């Protein structure tokens, strides 16, 4: 079985990630069944699909014919039972609640065809925590999409102890067939790859602010106008291969002892939490936020990612 014979795609959860994942598969030519608990959620998801398709058209990433065909490839249902008979590949994309995910995987196991591969779009849990809820642990795997799923190609595929090689190959084939870049972790690791690296950067960024070395704005400026631009086209190991590991090793010897290794939250963040400064959701974090500022940032991100996508 490969991406051409997989059958329909099931997506469980029609929220921020779920609707975008469903749209990705539909743009790639797949028939999709999108499941959520209420018709209202599903109606909003289909509105979000139309809105996102409009953005992709504006950015030149899909043509009008494709955009018009996508909604017709997505059918919706409020029940897994009876909706998954022809599904060969499933993405669970509900919020991060382990008990809920386990119940969903048990339901999927009962109602999906025996050959169907069951994946979870989770950044918090391991394949080994979900697979025992099914009678097909060899066909269960984490496939962690990155947000926004319609613009970021990365999907981290995390093999569990019982995941078969065939499941990994099917998952890679299905994802590559819609233009994604799956990276397979050969064993489970908390945070996978991306979040381990992202939070290592966050810890050092907060340390710089905590120590009064620079402001939050200046820390962000260093990333946005410096090495962050380079990271979109060359990873850190590529860059340092160019620099030479003899040179980099001297810097490591000097710099590593001075880097933050704390396993506790930043004092700056602790103070913000005490004040109720939660970021966008409260209107104040390191920056002041209102609807216009949030929309402007999202537009900048979308435009930049779309530009990279066109030339990737």
Q: What is the CATH H-level superfamily of the largest domain?
A: NAD(P)-binding Rossmann-like Domain
The share of residues in extended strands comes to 5-15%
Query: How many β-strands, per DSSP?
Result: 8
What structural class results from the helix and strand content?
A: alpha/beta
Report the mean per-residue pLDDT as an integer.
Answer: 96
Helical coverage, percent range: 40-55%
Radius of gyration: 21 Å
Read across the widest sheet, the strand sequence of neighbours is: 3-2-1-4-5-6-7-8
Spans with pLDDT under 50 lasting ≥5 residues?
A: none
Would you give the CATH topology of the largest domain?
A: Rossmann fold
Largest sheet: 8 strands, mixed
Q: In CATH's first tier, which class of the largest domain applies? A: Alpha Beta
Helix count from the secondary structure assignment: 13
**How far apart, in Å, are the first and last alpha carbons?**
29 Å
Question: Which geometry do the CA atoms define?
Answer: globular
Helix-strand sequence: EHEHHEEHEHEEHEHHHHHHH
Tell me which CATH architecture of the largest domain applies here.
3-Layer(aba) Sandwich
Please indicate the count of domains.
3
């Amino acid at each position: 079985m490969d991406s051409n014979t997989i059958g329909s795609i099931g997506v469980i959860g029609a929220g921020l990630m779920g609707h975008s994942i469903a749209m990705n598969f539909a743009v790639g030519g797949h028939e999709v069944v999108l499941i959520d608990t209420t018709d209202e959620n599903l109606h909003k998801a289909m509105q979000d699909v139309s809105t996102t398709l409009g953005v992709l058209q504006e950015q030149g990433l899909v043509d009008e014919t494709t955009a018009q065909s996508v909604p017709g490839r997505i059918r919706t249902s409020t029940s897994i039972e009876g909706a998954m008979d022809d599904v060969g590949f499933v993405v669970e994309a509900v919020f991060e609640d382990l008990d809920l995910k386990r119940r969903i995987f048990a339901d999927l196991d009962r109602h999906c065809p025996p050959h169907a591969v069951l994946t979870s779009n989770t950044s918090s849990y391991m394949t080994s925590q979900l697979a025992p809820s099914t009678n097909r642990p060899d066909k269960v795997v984490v496939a962690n999409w990155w947000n926004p799923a319609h613009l970021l190609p990365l999907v981290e595929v995390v093999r569990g102890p019982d995941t078969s090689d065939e499941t990994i190959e099917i998952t890679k084939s299905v994802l590559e067939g819609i233009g994604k870049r799956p990276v397979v972790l050969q064993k489970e690791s908390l945070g996978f790859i991306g979040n381990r690296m992202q939070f290592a950067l966050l810890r050092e960024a907060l340390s710089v602010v905590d120590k009064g070395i620079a402001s939050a704005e200046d820390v962000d400026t260093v990333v946005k106008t410096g090495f962050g631009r380079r990271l979109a086209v060359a990873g850190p190991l590529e860059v340092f291969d160019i620099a030479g590991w003899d040179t980099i090793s001297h810097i490591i010897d000097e710099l590593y002892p001075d880097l933050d290794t704390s396993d506790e939250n930043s004092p700056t963040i602790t103070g913000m939490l005490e004040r109720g400064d939660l970021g966008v959701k409260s209107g104040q974090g390191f920056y002041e936020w209102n609807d216009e500022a949030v929309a402007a940032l999202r537009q900048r991100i979308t435009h930049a990612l779309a530009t990279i996508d066109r030339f990737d």
